[in-house]
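Fold description:
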Amino acid sequence: MQHADALPRVSPTYTNTITYVISIDTDNDGIPDTNDNCTLVINPAQIDSDGDGYGNYCYPKFDNVGVVNAADLSIVMTMFFKPPGPSCRGDVLP
């Protein structure tokens, strides 16, 4: 931008930048897609039991073999009716 008066005196040129950040949340779980580990399924807790970057709700692969298989089902079955978290597997917190 520059300003000029009637004489004409002209000011230096001034610039500025406006950045718009558009946050998309495809599954409406409150986590933007750029940070969501499961963009098509609502999972606000972002639980990722095996730490592979994919949320349990959309990729329930717990044994790290690359596919959802019977072993994953077995892991889930051992957790029924137990409290969530480390106590469901008998782990001891440090």
